[in-house]
Design goal:
70 residues; mainly alpha; extended
Length: 70
Amino acid sequence: MNAAHAHPADDLSAAAVNRLEPMLIRLPPNLAGRLRQLARATRIRQSDYLREAVSDLLAKYEHLLASEQP
C-alpha cells in the first residue's frame, strides 16, 4: 500500500503478520468478482483488502465493543 493511504491495518508488526488467524468467508459472486478485479488492477492482495475492510468496520463500531469490556 502507498504511504498516502496509511491505515491502522498497516500497523501490524512482522510478528503479528506471521500469526494471522485463518478465516473462511463467503461473498456473493458480484462482490468476489469486483474484489478480484481490484486486486489485479492494483496488485494488492485480496486478503489485504479484506483485513482493511474488517479494520474499518471494527473502528466504525468501536463504541459497541468498548461498552462490552469489563
